[in-house]
Amino acid sequence: MSLRNAACIAGAFEHPTRLAPDMTTPQLHAECAAGALADAGLSLTDVDGYFCATDAPGFGPISMIDYLGLTVRHTDSTEMGGCTYIQHVAHAAQAIAMGKCSVALITLAGRPRSEAVQRFRPGAPESAFEQWVGLTNHTSYGMCAARHMHEFGTTSEQLAWIKVAASHHAQHNPHAMLPKVVTVEEVVNSPMIADPLHRLDCCVTTDGGGALVVVSPEIAKTLNRPVISLLGAGEATKGPSGGLGLDLTVSAAAQSGPRAFAEAGVTPADIKYASIYDSFTITVLMQLEDLGFCAKGEGGKFVADGNLISGTGKLPFNTDGGGLCNNHPMFRGGITKVIEAVRQLRGEAAPAVQVPNCDLAVATGIGGSLGARHGAATIILERQS
Amino acid sequence: MSARKRPAPQPNPETQAFWDGLGEGVLRIKTCGNCHEGHYYPRHICPHCGSADTRWLDTAGTGEIYSLSVMRRGEGAPFAVAYVTLDEGPSVLTNLVADDLDALAIGQRVRLAPQPGDADDIGDGPALPVFAAIGD
Ligand SMILES: [Zn+2]
Prior knowledge:
- Chain B: InterPro entries: ChsH2_C (IPR002878), ChsH2_Znr (IPR022002), NA-bd_OB-fold (IPR012340), Thioester_dehydratase-like (IPR052513).
- Chain B: Residues 58-112 form the ChsH2 C-terminal OB-fold domain.
- Chain B: It comes from Maricaulis maris.
- Chain B: This is DNA-binding protein.
- The complex is a heterodimer.
- Chain A is α/β, with parallel strands linked by helices.
- Chain A folds into two domains: 8-115 and 207-229, 3-Layer(aba) Sandwich (Peroxisomal Thiolase, Chain A, domain 1); 136-205 and 231-383, Peroxisomal Thiolase, Chain A, domain 1 (3-Layer(aba) Sandwich).
- Helices cover 34% and strands 18% of the residues of chain A.
- Chain A has 13 helices and eleven strands.
- Chain A has a nine-stranded mixed sheet, with helices on both faces. A two-stranded antiparallel ribbon of chain A has the order 5-6.
- In chain A, a hairpin with a 2-residue loop joins strand 5 and strand 6 (197-198).
- The radius of gyration of chain A is 19 Å and the shape is globular.
- Chain B is mainly beta.
- Chain B has a single domain (16-133), classed as CATH 2.40.50.840.
- Helix content of chain B is 6%, strand content 32%.
- Chain B is built from one helix and eight strands.
- Chain B has one helix spanning 16-23, and strands spanning 28-32, 38-39, 54-58, 62-71, 79-86, 91-97, 109-112, 131-133.
- Chain B has a five-stranded mixed barrel. Chain B has a three-stranded antiparallel sheet with strand order 2-1-3.
- The longest helix of chain B is centred in the N-terminal third of the chain and has 8 residues, at 16-23.
- The mean pLDDT of chain B is 93.
- The interface between A and B is large, with 38 and 46 residues.
């Protein structure tokens, strides 16, 4: 049994807000749900499965199900940090394939610019050994970048090309938080945050959210939308594993990616568009290597000279501007990765960045702390002709 | 620049001997009587093989920098976050102290320099397993 063609993404919605001082987080969830369902041509009463992560307000998925007014027969609040929503697409397909639901709604929302957000989870067994160290995301991903530079000669200028490419795309997105095109020089001359990562190597922080509607193939055919099928999915986790064989240059995507490609029966060379989780520039570079778009250590050369820019480069990525320039709602960029992949496959991306004949896309992400313990999720999506 | 408020570690039955060791200037890891591998942070059950036959080992407290990143912004900056690979094998997530943080580099030899909890920390706790460049 496989997930190949087991389910379709029928609805996708990215909330246009990037700053929401006068809204509530449940309200944002509800607006995203309404947007994705309208996009699919479905309504709340059609939903029989609900997915959120543990950041959703209230008790697991139960509070939001009641708040939204849903009646469901399947729930899932799997947590994998920012890439959760990529994983939720796969888990929704599993549930649909098993007959546990037929219309799954996935929502994310948060307001980290407008309210204090609890990010530290008390009681983790590593807490006493790591919390006092000050391992923020900046230093965690910074250590990965430093080691990658040490082993492979990767440069700050090469990492900067990832931000430059994202900014070229963001200029065409009217909702992007940072719509201005930047240069390699501007990135490497921006203030150092955590060596070797500069301010412009980091993603934006935004209020906002998004939602997805995953349906059975039978229901997808009845909707007046292009049919976007899931071809394959993979997930994995990776940690310091007791400190033996530490390798900060390889992410869990080295396992989730090949699993997804194997299930889909396609290779990286077949991919027309890639949504790559971009919490930092180094996050993108490592995933490109780990998914097999280039060899380990060759990521710096691969991303240089605009190779990720739509219309110019060989692998158009994050054509909405990504987390680096557009949106990273609630510190969680997974859902916007899926949403832009769906736009590309439907031909609904901004015209200046739309990939011609885009029929095969990947969305991949990292959740948690790349330099410590993290998860990865990868999905391959195809537009049915 | 205000000092960084460090949450004091809370020892528990699985880790008390580790924190006691630091008070004596020793960094202890766990090793396994079944697979003979060491691990850090310490657990009751070996994460490599699942054996409960784990025991404490006093390390030499020396190793080399696997990777590091100096935090340049925010409370207590600058400070260095690093993985140090101990001569006994396991890598340890830690802070590096040095007169010149910019002189620290991957591959450099370092030694344990236990740091007492101080008045700026959140709560009372044991000494912390911080490392310093050898020669500093
Ligand atoms: Zn063992």
